[in-house]
Specification:
The complex is a heterotetramer of chains A (396), B (461), C (330) and D (333).
Chain A (H helix, E strand, L loop, with lengths): L3 E14 L2 E14 L3 E5 L6 H9 L6 E11 L1 H8 L5 H4 E2 L2 E3 L5 H7 L4 E4 L3 H4 L6 H17 L5 H9 L8 H13 L5 H4 L9 H13 L5 E5 L7 H18 L2 E6 L2 H7 L2 E6 L2 E7 H6 L4 H9 L40 H5 L5 E2 L7 E2 L4 H11 L3 H9 L6
Chain C lengths: L1 H31 L4 H5 L6 H11 L5 H13 L13 H36 L4 H15 L2 H15 L12 H11 L3 H37 L2 H8 L4 H38 L5 H10 L3 H29 L7
Helix pairs in contact in C: 1-4, 1-13, 5-6, 5-9, 5-11, 5-13, 6-9, 7-9, 7-11, 8-9, 9-11, 10-11, 11-12, 11-13, 12-13
Chain D lengths: L3 H13 L1 H18 L1 H4 L23 E8 L2 E8 L17 H37 L1 H15 L3 H12 L3 E5 L1 H4 L9 E5 H27 L2 H8 L4 H37 L9 H8 L8 H28 L9
Antiparallel strand pairs in D: 1-2, 3-4
The chains are: A alpha/beta (396), B alpha/beta (461), C mainly alpha (330), D mainly alpha (333).
Chain lengths: 396, 461, 330, 333
Amino acid sequence: MTPKILKVRDLTTRFFTDAGQVNAVSGLNFDLGQGEVLAVVGESGSGKSVTGLSLMDLIEAPGEITDGEIWFRSPQLADELGGQKEKEKEVVDGEYVNVRAVSPAIRQSLCGTEFGMIFQDPGAAFNPSLTVGEQIAEAVECNKRLDRGDTYGLLDLIRDILSPKSSFVSSESYERAIELLDRVDIPDPIDRVDEYPHQFSGGMLQRAMVAQALASDPTVLIADEPTTGLDVTIQAGIVDLLRELRVETGMSILIITHNLGVVSEIADRTAVMYAGELFEVGPTPQVFERPANPYTDGLLGSLPDFDDPNARIEPIPGNVPNLLAHEMPSGCSFADRCPKATEECAEINPPLEDLTEGDDHRVACLHAETTRRVAELSVESPIRADSRVDSGVTNE
Amino acid sequence: MSERTSPERQRRNRTAPDTENEDEGEKTRSESVTPLLRIEDLRKHYVDKQGVAEWVLSKDPGRVRAVDGVSFEVDRGETVGIVGESGCGKSTLARTILGLHEPTDGYIEFAGKDVHEQIASDRKRFARRAQIVFQDPSSCLDPRMTLREIVREPLDIHQVGAKAHRNEKVTELVERVGLSTDQLERYAHEFSGGQRQRIGIARALALDPELIVLDEPTSALDVSVQAQILNLLSELQEEFNLTYLFISHDLSVIRYLCDRVVVMYLGQVAETGPVDAVFERPAHPYTKILLESVPGARNRIGEEAIKSDIPSPRNPPRGCRFHTRCPVVLPPSKYGMEFEQDAWQGIFEYKLRLRSGRLGRERATELAELTDNDGNEETTAKEAVRDSCSIPRVLSDSTAEELLDQSLSALVDGDSEMALKIMNADFESPCEQERPAVVDIDIDTDHRAACLRASDEEGEQ
Amino acid sequence: MKEVLTFLARRSIQGIFVVWGVITTVFLFRVISPTNPAQLMAPDDASPELVRQIEEDLGLTEPIFVQYVNYVIGVVQGDLGFSYMTNTPVLRRILHALPGTLELAVAALLFAVIVSIPLGIFSAMYRGTKIDSTSNLVSLGGVSTPNFWLAIMMVLFISVQFGLLPTSGRPIGLGEATGLLVFQGDFGGLSSWVAHMILPTIALGTYFMALLFRLTRNGVLEEMGKEYILAARGKGLPEPLLMYRYVLRNSLTPVVTVTGLQLGGLIGGSVVVESVFAWPGLGTLFIRSLNVSDWPMMQGILILVGAGYVLTNIAVDFVNAKLNPQVDLA
Amino acid sequence: MISDRTRTSLKKELRSNAVATIGVILLLSMIVMALFAPMLAPHDPTDQDSSRNHQPPVFFGGEEEETTRMIDGEIRTVTESNVGSMTHPLGTDSNGRDVLSRTIYGARTSILVAFSAMLVSLVVGTTVGMVSGYYGGNTDTVLMRFVDIVLAFPALLITLAMIGVFGSVNVDIPDPLVVSGLVSGRPTHLTVPITITLAISSVIWVWIARVARGEAIAAKNEEYVIAARTMGMSNWKIIWKHVLPNSITPILVLATIQVASIIIIESSLSFLGFSGTNLSWGYDIAAGRDYLGTSWWLSTVPGLFIVVTVVGINLLGDLLRDALDPGIQRGGL
């Protein structure tokens, strides 16, 4: 079994809005293996994007990560920090470092080096007044400077502003930016490196976003809805690109998406989120073919099947709940829409537990066993189960 | 120009449902034969606003060819899907059909009569027969109106029955689309996305229309809610004998809901036919690529994904609009069919790059540097260009090889104009010159496509 | 370069139409105005014949359309006519008064920009602190205080109470003062110029400063919430660089726009400030002409100010297009 | 006109924002002062008495002095009191008129001009903006070019020019509070400066029109407006029922902020001596300038009232903007 690169424990992120406290992510537990692709799926408001931002430590007011540990495997950093006596236990555990407990400076230095991120809307994630190449080169440069231990302070800024010839970005970083653009298959990178984001199409910009994330050779790539809003031909290109890069660089990818088709193509394991909680996590084929949580089952059943027009879709009744703390039920948050809900469900919020010993498939449902059994029964018509794996294209 | 071969095409085996509308005096006897909606060579171009300055400078206004020569028919009771990527003109098409835009050219016939004449003579009357459901749940309802007001608005405009009758009808509709009548006095923003879409459907149904245009009604919804709406739509269709024109970019939704499909590319129809036929046996390379791109689909190929962008409808490519992205562009007729498709595709790529002005001498040298080969500089540069476009080092056809080499030499010498000139003169694909006519793939099912390859095959048969 | 030329051509054509509208409006003012200039120019005991004679000399007996065409042709040729009162060419009088107003407006503009922009950035960065709330309060006062009253209060507290700084007049212009300094090594002229400038500049610039402060602060705050700021943090960009290259540059667009457009407001505002400080500028000239219905003079000033507004507008658009690559010049 | 959502967000903003509440209270007290000036003013603002001129505000000292004067044909020695007293809490001016009463009456002029000019601007600006934005095309081009021309002139210059064109037209209307006999010993008429009001409206409406146009363009492309068109609703009805109600909030926010500009323009005009009435803040400030060395309060007091009113309006404007529409920009003078 591959070692885990990331172990997330009890991650909880809340937003303190005027309308009340929003529990965007509640007590999340999952692992990300080295070189693994883990998909986090869920509908809008399931907290999947907040999970990604929490991992990157990019939650801004009124949001706050209120609880949890994020253990990141970095023997080198663990060595460095190991000597410090106080609170050692909270910070270092063998090869793992709890990035939630390290100093802000170290935390920040991990962003853009070990962790890279692709944002949902590339049009908004690029600064409109700088060229695409410059922004990618900046990422390269930041990473280089961190390696050299260069810090950049106010004085450096003043020097840069005053002498018009000096630039933050060195020409080597600029060359590297061109290479990166070429790597993500942007045609004519030498010309396009000097273009502004608005001159790029959505798909090209998403590729450039990937290039920017690659600038630092990240260990973990967090891709937040990388295909949403793109045309289907372009989507396919991005999925292929991510697949290639994963093989090539061996990085771990956490892909956040609502598109189950994308998941089935790229993810080794799938985590299903609903109302800020993890409902089910397991190897993708298992989750798709034998969903143990009724919500996963319902989600898969809601998708029109692309390859089999005769399969009926069975919608889940009701609506996605809102996450205001005072409106959330005390029991399972899916209970009011769940076909299998019993009275117990309204009271007990089921923990995420192993479905069976050792097969890495965990589920949070009181009726997991029955669901599984029913699902297995229905698998007897193999077409349906098969088609389900393949199904699904929806985008917003 | 596409020439429709026979207007009296054999119709599909679909019985037109009996639409009972006593007050529709213009109902013709031939209704069972005429389609509900017939669109012929429709064009809608947007012309850029021409201000005083443009007028003084006599600058040519830009022109977006959103819809550029589209023809198809919709029979009563069927669901026709219009599918295509962003910028293919599908929404403009829908809105032009409903008379929201004045068409630039072409003809739209609704129940045997010209739509724009109908609108000119009586806007309201036409409104009762054709309605629309929109994409964006956050903008499709007036936030300052309650559910009751929204659904009653069309009834008020048309003064259908007495007040009490209208309220009754509102209750009926609201219940029918699956909303609770307790919520009648709630404002639009108090509903969730799926509920708002239901309200939009209720509003469209209020006037008992024959045709409903569904403009991406589920693309902003979550999958679990999308499924509810899709099922509601098919129930309603059966119950009210509705005809749907369903616009979407989501191929699986199209396949789930539609009987026939129109695949659009850059304002033109690439392929049209029964959903099953088009999805199982696509005849147009674009349709094929579209189907193969669907993530998770069974026949998804992966490696073949197109890397280039969709061209702008402001300045669409000449000839077949898809030729800039097509993997199977026809080779020039003088080299015949024996020209290997791979090699030819490489040459074509080289030509497209030259034309876009992105391949000059400097680029060639840069490419050469990247390969860091020793030896003759010129040869290296040429080979680098060949490699970057995946053209084999030597072409099988010697004349072609000679000409290509000439062009490459010109390029390396810095005369990219000359290089392009050679390519234009000697490597002209029919796909660049001719707009492909719409040809029948299968007459019985009305499966048609607009591709020169398809026409060639038809010609051979 | 080509796109710059097309931009300039396009905007100049639009601008010419606006200026033509300005000229027409101004001409109409004179036509509608009930005063008879001939009556004003003639001595009190003039005979009707004399008045008639003057009317004819002024061209007022011609049909309105002919007068209009003559007027427009005159303006195009740089001839704004003669003052009814002093019978001197309007243009010469205006050019004589212009430096006073321009010096004041530019000084107020500089004062406002120099104070407000750094303060606005600072306030936004340290949002919610004492410095922020104090600056906010001061800016609220700034946008709410009429400039003439501020001027009087400054005179009251600074000049009357403490006898500092002169309260009226403009004994020397900047050009003359610099001349003295350069050719005679005399600092007196320049120091007198500065002393006379201080109060009017603050009085005129305060409103504008407060306005710019608010714009800058809001702009920076808004920019800091954008997704590309998150993305830049995500790639590890140093904070000072982030503030400068991402936040500041992008929040400047509205600031530049308002700075340019307010130049007109400053000239309008200077009418009152000039009147408080007995400042010999366009404002004073305008009020004096208004009191005696000297229409050619008022028309001239209005046309000049209107044309100036059109020009600054073009400049502002140009600068914004340079700042923001999304704006297409053509 | 105001939806539930608007009301709740307004309430919330008021509750959470103490400064804004102060602003609203300040503004309301100014309006009350303007409405009930005859009842609130302790003296007749026009009542002159040279025996008590230049009295400072109460607690600000002053002195008594004996002078000889001709009274009833006799020469007498009288004591003139220049000590601030509660009778004239804010002192008296050079003609012995009560400063407090004058200032209270001054609020009338300011508020009256501000509200009537804003009403005119709102009607004209909204209509032009709606038509221009909704119909677009040539209508839009022509209307907006016209707006450009108006914008090319600084507001104050163009209002002054219009006063030059039309002269100072004022209408005296009977003061209802005095005519009905509720109060006596106060001026029986209140003066409405028609020219100033219309001149100010002629520049303010363009700002309203611009915002209204932008809103109309945005609303026109909303799907509910397109839906109304497919239902066969007429354009005018769509503007009235859908476009206007959904555009009105930012228009009202802008209108509130522009009321502040109007008050400043009005006081500037009266300061320059172009007011139609001498019961106005700007007029008093100008009058007080000549006595800055001796009677500082003459210019100070009315000015403070202007600042307080405008601060109140600006706070209300900021409150409305924060509560309803974060995107709007303030148009300057």
